[in-house]
Specification:
Keywords: Membrane, Transmembrane, Transmembrane helix. The protein has 170 residues and is mostly helical. It has one domain. The chain is 85% helix and 0% strand. The protein contains eight helices and no strands.
């Protein structure tokens, strides 16, 4: 396991730092930094996973790589990107409570705009439960949400990239 981690952790760390830089720039520019950082992460993570898996195959694997090896390397990369991004956003939101309050207010406002749609298609209790959960939202909830969205989405990209880069010499 150490050889997979050693060959891939740098790609995950650099990808996570890029996501945090994007978060900082987006918040400085005045855009919604959390949602746009998620979009940015979902766009750059496959690039880092591809480069990291290819690097592993060409260096450590001596030109060969099994699907499982590609998945392991990819897991380390996108796991680190998701973890660093989520922890960095949580830290930033703790230091800037006004940004968190603004994000929370935007989510509640969006939910209130969709009240009619939700009550017609689901029921009033579901809307009330969602509203209660949004009002009780914490920084930890936002960080967990960011982590899970990046982690789960990038799993599918890693599967595809591992299949593409798999190579076995006969």
């Amino acid at each position: 396991m150490a050889k997979y981690f050693k060959g891939s952790y740098l790609f995950g760390v650099v990808g996570g730092v890029f996501c945090l830089l994007a978060f900082w720039v987006l918040s400085w520019v005045g855009l919604d930094p959390i949602d746009f950082t998620l979009l940015f992460a979902c766009l750059i993570t496959p690039v880092f996973v591809f480069i990291g898996i290819k690097n592993y195959r060409d260096t450590t694997g001596a030109g060969e790589m099994l699907f499982a090896q590609g998945m392991t390397v990819g897991f380390v990369i996108y796991g680190l990107i998701a973890l660093i991004t989520a922890l960095g956003i949580a830290l930033f939101l703790q230091m800037a409570p006004d940004l968190f309050a603004s994000y929370k207010a935007d989510r509640i406002s969006y939910l209130q705009e969709k009240q009619t749609y939700i009550t017609e298609n689901v029921n009033k209790e579901a809307f009330d439960k969602a509203m209660t959960e949004h009002r009780g939202m914490s920084v930890r909830d936002v960080a967990l949400d960011v982590f899970l969205k990046i982690f789960i989405l990038e799993l599918f990209f890693t599967i595809i990239i591992s299949i593409i880069l798999k190579r076995i010499k006969n």
